[in-house]
């Protein structure tokens, strides 16, 4: 045991010396020394085999030269890399020390504040995503059991009021499930986990599918929903993201338009951009509300309208930015709202 410890001491001394001079970690030192030993031993082993068999691809002296040369080259590359890394760090420290004390303190505080803000935003997104997922799981059970009670799968519940209560529980559960889904989607969009792959898309086709999807809802509320398409409506974007954006814009237009109103979707080209505009004859926005449009959880109460989580426009704007486009809103109180999605043309 004493001999083993004595044999390790030179290796540890070399490791400490190299760590002080080049700033390398102990693991890097061990890997480097091991590789050098393997190369040197391999060169001498090849030389021994050559002497034994009296044949080989290279002369004997080439093995004895290439082994140490390769070890030296390997060490030179590692040391140069480490010295350059330490030189950059030293230069940064010198620049910071040369900065006036007040400015240096301000820079340090700004860097620390930025780091804390990034960590807080990441923690918030992870918390929202985790809690939304945990809440959706028991909600599925609540909705399922309420439907079982409402439809009487295992027999009559005894009193008609119980069926009515089960129906109300199921409706409230589905509404809450949808709102939690919006929160989870917003958290995924903000965290960059919503997949967006821009490519060549046909805006007219996507807008037509969205209009057909909301046609029944518009008919039930006696709202006229129509669409106008101009030629050359190709754009660069993600089909699913565009469909989600247009779905949010149409949903808001139908929610805030009273019965007997009109919602129109226009697809056209404008100044090198492909544009989809959704206009309605609803209540519009006031100047104070216009400054909050697009913010997360911003909701506007309207008579006869059912407000959601206030995340539809926030999700739409975030997805549009990720595709290199934009969502623009306009309107006035009592004169309706105009929402416009602009994307790059191919």
Poorly predicted regions are 1-24
Question: How are the strands of the largest sheet arranged?
Answer: 2-4-5-7-6
SSE series: HHHHHEHEEHEEHHEE
| H/I helix tally | 9
Count of beta strands: 7
Overall average pLDDT: 76
Shape: elongated
Strand content: 5-15%
Distance between the termini: 74 Å
Alpha-carbon Rg, integer: 34 Å
Q: Structural class, judged by helices and strands?
A: alpha+beta
Largest sheet: 5 strands, mixed
Q: Helix content range of the residues, please?
A: 55-70%
Features:
346 residues, alpha+beta, 5-stranded mixed beta sheet, two-stranded antiparallel sheet, 9 helices, disordered N terminus
What does this entry look like structurally?
The protein is α+β, with helices and mostly antiparallel strands and 346 residues long. 64% of the residues lie in helices and 13% in strands. It has nine helices and seven strands; from the N terminus they run αααααβαββαββααββ. β6 and β7 form a beta hairpin. α5 (160-190) runs parallel beside α9 (312-322) and α6 runs parallel beside α7 (239-255). The longest helix is centred in the middle third of the chain and has 51 residues, at 101-151. The radius of gyration is 34 Å and the shape is elongated. 20% of the residues are buried. Residues 1-24 have low confidence and may be disordered.
